[in-house]
Amino acid sequence: MEGTRIGQWLNLLVVCALLLLKTEASSYVPITYVQNAVAKGAVCLDGSPPAYHFDKGFGVGINNWLLQFEGGGWCNNVTTCLSRKYNRLGSSKQMAKQIAFSGILGNKHQFNPDFYNWNRIKVRYCDGASFTGDVEAVNPVTKLHFRGARVFTAVIEDLLAKGMKNARKAIISGCSAGGLTSILHCDRFRALLPTRANVKCISDAGFFINARDVSGTRHIEQFFSQIVATHGSARNLPPSCTSRLSPGLCFFPQYFVSQISTPIFLINAAYDSWQIKNILAPGVADPRGHWHSCKLDINNCSSNQLGTMQGFRTEFLRALTVLGNSQSKGMFIDSCYAHCQTEMQETWFRSDSPLLAKTTIAKAVADWFYDRRLFHKIDCPYPCNPSCHNRIFDPRHDNPGI
């Protein structure tokens, strides 16, 4: 009985310690609406103004700027975009009035040693196409606005007016669809910033690959092509790609990332949990649900499924070879079953964070940004890395896939 009570107290202490750490590592930042963007037609899917959360820099970081673009998938047709119109991914009216900043956005030295005192901005995502769309016409029935590219420009202009025009250092970053945003808009962001500024780009879980699924079909290629067509994205995709390939393919970083001139750092899991669930084994390719349990928890995967996932990793790494040994392009490719690792304190910078070459993601990114050393590392195959934080999904909230 006494042993049971001690165990319960120890569990309680652990929970309290984790809650305290989470509280210390997070700060809450209010929302800012870019009201003047509406007159420019730079609006969310429902016509509401774009928004961001801005935690001002201080001390020596007062002229340094870090923009983190929010993720949240994409909508590929009128039906799926309409479903977003009534939630935070399509309307700023539905966004939380304040959100927590942690990880790369944290404002305390012990949790974010290299960027804590920068101007840190979380740009909210409400256009459904990684800020690439621009269709002038608005359907009178659906009243959907496909204006993501205008939103991107309006947000940057608003921040330039608030002091970013004096930037000495600047980073565009993002997670998932926001990570793709930072790749697609990397050179555009550089062009909008002062020429004297040291500008670089970071993509977290944004390197989506054009791979066949378990049925042998490229469903993701069709999906991305539909996004580009629906949002009129072609004119806002990298010209170095669209001059050679169909616009839908130019939504995949592997076809244009080597042509990006601005320095860029890629953070990705080789077994990206979103890509495993939605590119390798989407619901449409697995109608009997053989992959359902495996996708929720990699520990549930059969040896055959793990073999298929190792094949996906091989294809993912092959897509990365276009980067070569570029001195300006860094990477941290771990072997975790994860998706997005910069915004959570646990995976960004903590005593138990994922390590690659004995280095945390935060340290690798900072060393690369400040030119302390080039970080260009790829992990050994799963399950070789004991420091990984592998995702376990709640089956009640499982996304059936594209």
Automatic annotation (TrEMBL):
Subcellular location(s) per record: Secreted, Cell wall
Keyword Signal assigned: yes
Keyword Repeat: no
EC number(s) reported in the record: 3.1.1.-
Keywords, ordered alphabetically: Cell wall, Cell wall biogenesis/degradation, Hydrolase, Secreted, Signal
Pfam families: PAE
GO cellular component, one term: plant-type cell wall
GO biological process: cell wall organization
Organism domain of life: Eukaryota
Gene Ontology MF annotations: pectin acetylesterase activity
Listed InterPro entries: AB_hydrolase_fold (IPR029058), PAE/NOTUM (IPR004963)
Residues of the signal peptide: 1-25
Function, in words: Hydrolyzes acetyl esters in homogalacturonan regions of pectin. In type I primary cell wall, galacturonic acid residues of pectin can be acetylated at the O-2 and O-3 positions. Decreasing the degree of acetylation of pectin gels in vitro alters their physical properties.
UniProt cross-references to PANTHER family, sorted A to Z: NOTUM-RELATED, PECTIN ACETYLESTERASE 8
Family: Belongs to the pectinacetylesterase family.
Protein name: Pectin acetylesterase
Native source organism of the sequence: Lupinus albus (White lupine)
Upper lineage: Eukaryota, Viridiplantae, Streptophyta, Embryophyta, Tracheophyta
